[in-house]
């Protein structure tokens, strides 16, 4: 699905990513963990096309295309989805309007006609039930006056509507109570299929219990210093990130 | 030095223009004496210039250097020509002025409710020999262009509501500059006399057709009786070479309410003066405004709210969106007189810059002489939130579309306050199509 090679990125001259190598095969769920400031969110943002970072080296091949050459909107149309750590509020523009615009942007990109209004509403009604939101909420402004948990549910609702090939979820599980966490992990599990891949950026093992990843990678100081199966989460929980520096030194040498 | 020597050539032209049309102007000899006095006042003061504090950022030099003439008759236009300016779904009475003259054939004033008079101001003046003409009956400092209007106005809307009368549908007053001939001007004047407990909603719509240069100089006066309510929506959609100046003066008696919503989308240059005096207790005023200069447009809003006596309320909110080389000016004066204790006032002005070539000068101005008042004010100038732009792009919306959607979001809450959904939708759509990439999202409205 996606192949990241030697990715270096900096912001205002300060290196954030210092050579990321990561392969995510079709149909797999990979988790990215690591301490604050290790570059997890930066990696997620760069994959989605945020422009404030300067890519100094490396490549990201997604479905045989160089992702780094596409704008954020083009990446979305190619099937990349970013679940935001801090979803934005857009008062006066309804969630449904945005979703219809997003779906139609994809269709236009692929040379297809706009989605039928009735089909769209049926689809929205079906998917919104999965995240425990109401159509009333969907008709409100994008995340307008939503609680933190509602915003995250809404990200998952959007993801289910847009049916991405590659979903990158940036701490979508942070700050959630157990019910909301279940909604989020159910949503991710619902999306799982041999044609779709998921990147979970998370601080917490809790999500990975509901949504078991194929691989876990540990990011530290802009590099992946350790990779393993789902059991790595237990190790990290037991040991913390304290001995990563030695790993980092070992990788660097 | 004699008075004649002081007169500049541009003023000379308007003196000659008055002499040319005086006989045809509506009103009695008495009113002509009033016009002539105002003409002298205009001649003495001249066009406003940038040395005056109130006109510091807005130069009328392009107006002053031209020689605009009044149209003796309205150019023949049909409903088709103005159809695009009628908000879809708006059930309204309609009074249409073309090139400064009332056109019955384009108007719809049938079945007005009892106690409500809506007619051509010219016809009303001709029927009321005792009526006087002044730059502004209800302002002491109406400005030289209001004096010019008093001298030269050809027609307008005269609206009078008897005590308790309610205008059951909005009245759409459209002033069209036909653009049939180059360098024409319209001098239009409206008067609203609102009786006790009466209520009316009026949409004053200035539109320009064609691409000729013209000058539209309008004045509206509103006298608000006790507990009367006026909602006035001022839509300004002059064409690209239209120079627009309009002034609103209201005087509000006890318990009266004025809701004034300004929307400025058009014109090469527009200067809008919006004024009210709250002269009695519990009078309440709301001034809202949205302005959107793009290209090389210049839009200047000056407002003035005077709290003259105790226990009155004012709320003012302006939002500007500036794109291209657009230039905006906002000056909001709140004057709270010594006797105006317990005044409750709040003003905010926010501006959104969509381009680094756009510029705005926005300033709330408070003058407070009473010591027991609530008077809040705030002013912001900013750009679109790049996180929000990225959010929309990450969903597949292109860059321009993302910016248009967020701009719409910025202005929408204020436009909604117009209260008439058909008009709000019309304004939102007109705003979106002005924005780069906005046409694709005109269905947001």
| Average predicted local confidence, pLDDT of chain A | 93
Unreliable stretches of chain B (pLDDT < 50, length at least 5) are 1-5
Q: List the strand order in the largest sheet of chain A.
A: 6-9-10-3-11-12
Helicity of chain B, in percent? 10-25%
Biggest beta-sheet profile of chain B: 10 strands, mixed
Strand fraction band of chain B? Answer: 35-45%
Assign the structural class of chain A, choosing from mainly alpha, mainly beta, alpha/beta, alpha+beta, or little secondary structure.
alpha/beta
Radius of gyration of chain B equals: 21 Å
Helix content of chain A: 25-40%
* Main sheet specs of chain A: 6 strands, mixed
Record field, number of beta strands of chain B: 20
Return the string of H and E elements of chain A.
Answer: EEEHEEHEEHHHEHEHEHEEHH
**End-to-end Cα distance of chain A:** 30 Å
Name the assembly state: heterodimer
How large, in whole angstroms, is the Cα Rg of chain A?
A: 18 Å
What is the overall shape of chain A?
Answer: globular
